[in-house]
Design brief:
Strand content: over 45%
Shape: globular
Number of strands: 11
Number of helices: 0
Structural class: mainly beta
Order of helices and strands: EEEEEEEEEEE
Largest sheet: 7 strands, mixed
Distance between the termini: 39 Å
């Protein structure tokens, strides 16, 4: 199984930007589609973005489309989530997840591996 470690989360002011990284180890990341999820206090974990194994296709939840961009570097075994124009409602723990196969999913139960999460806090 692939091991995932997220980094890059911190406190940022509204309107600011962050780039989250998800570094993989144990196996090559190239056969895995990746998902980004987030969980705010008292709320269920929600899908944020997904990217295909090859990196040629991505999808976003409506609330972040146009502000967030996910990308990947299969040579570096790393996936990224660039977050711009951050809002207080983006505050959450952000997780990356790997699913063996070419296509992402918005369903968290189909992912095989998860990182430990990184905290993003957006102040107003």
């Amino acid at each position: 199984q692939v091991q995932l470690v997220e980094s890059g989360g911190r406190l940022v002011q509204a309107g600011g930007s962050l780039r989250l990284s998800c570094a993989a180890s144990g196996r090559a990341l190239s056969p895995y589609a990746m998902g980004w999820f987030r969980q705010a206090p008292g709320k269920e974990r929600e899908f944020v973005a997904g990217i295909s194994a090859s990196g040629d296709m991505a999808a976003y939840v409506d609330s972040v489309r146009g502000r967030f961009t996910t990308s990947r570097d299969n040579v570096e075994n790393t996936v990224y989530l660039q977050m711009n124009s951050l809002k207080p409602e983006d505050t959450a723990v952000y997780y990356c997840a790997a699913r063996y196969g070419s296509t992402w999913s918005s369903l968290n139960h189909v992912y095989n591996s998860w990182g430990q999460g990184t905290q993003v806090t957006v102040s107003s």
